[in-house]
Design a protein that fits this description.
five-stranded mixed sheet, single chain, alpha/beta, Rossmann fold
Length: about 200
C-alpha cells in the first residue's frame, strides 16, 4: 500500500521513557520522558536545525514548517524540547489523536518476555499475520495505518511530526517505499530524524 505525499515529512520518535528502558510495551499508556529521553529530543532538534539550514527549499524554513504531535505526554514533551532547541516557543503545538501509538490492549505494561510466556499461542499467530493481528483488546497495524493515513491526508505542507515507533513503521509502508514485512520489523531509533520525501525514507 502507498500514499502519495506531496510534501516533506520530518518524523521523530519520542525520547526514551523508563518503560522503554525496562522493555515494557507502552502502547497508549501515557508515560513520561526520562533524562535520556530529554537529551534525545534535544539531539533530534539539533539534527532538524541542520537539515533545514541545508535545504534549498524555502518552504522548509522552521517558521513555515507545520508541527504536529501525538497527544501522549512523551511526545508532547519531546516536541517541546525539540522546538526549544531550534529556537521556537515550546508551547502550543497541535496534537492529533490519530498519531497515538498502536494499542497493545491487555499486553500494555508487560515486557515482551512476559507476553511470550503468558500468550505463546497468540505470539505465534502474530508472527504469521503481523499486519492484521490484534492483541486482546488492542488494535492491528492495519487499523493503525488507516488512522495514520487519514492524518497524512490533512497535513497542510512540510511537517515535523513527533509520534511513536509503531507509527514510524506504518509510515515506512505508506510513504517510505518499504515493503510491509520489512517496515513492521524495522528499528525506529530515538533521537534521530526520519525524512520522508519523494517516496523515500532516509534516517539522518
Amino acid at each position: 500500500m502507498a500514499f502519495l505525499l506531496a510534501h516533506t515529512l520530518f518524523f521523530v520518535r519520542h525520547g526514551q521513557t523508563d518503560w522503554n528502558a525496562a522493555g515494557r510495551l507502552q502502547g497508549q499508556t501515557d508515560t513520561q520522558l526520562n533524562a535520556r529521553g530529554c537529551a534525545q529530543a534535544v539531539q533530534a532538534g539539533r539534527t532538524l536545525a541542520k537539515l533545514v539550514r541545508k535545504s534549498p527549499d524555502s518552504a522548509c524554513a522552521l517558521d513555515t514548517v507545520h508541527f504536529v504531535s501525538s497527544p501522549l505526554t512523551r511526545c508532547v514533551d519531546t516536541m517541546a524540547h525539540l522546538r526549544e532547541t531550534v529556537g521556537l516557543t515550546p508551547l502550543s503545538t497541535p496534537t492529533d489523536p490519530r498519531l497515538q501509538e498502536i494499542g497493545f490492549g491487555d499486553w500494555q505494561g508487560k515486557t515482551w518476555s512476559q507476553v511470550v510466556s503468558d500468550h505463546s499461542d497468540l505470539v505465534e499467530a502474530r508472527k504469521r499475520q503481523l499486519w492484521t493481528f490484534q492483541p486482546p483488546n488492542g488494535e492491528s497495524y492495519a487499523e493503525l495505518a488507516a488512522r495514520v493515513e487519514a492524518a497524512l491526508a490533512e497535513l497542510p505542507g512540510n511537517t515535523l511530526m513527533v509520534s511513536h515507533g509503531g507509527v514510524g513503521r506504518v509510515l515506512l509502508c505508506l510513504i517510505g517505499g518499504v515493503v510491509r514485512h520489512q517496515a513492521l520489523t524495522a528499528s525506529i531509533p530515538q533521537g534521530r530524524v526520519l525524512v520522508f520525501q519523494n517516496g523515500r525514507a532516509d534516517w539522518v
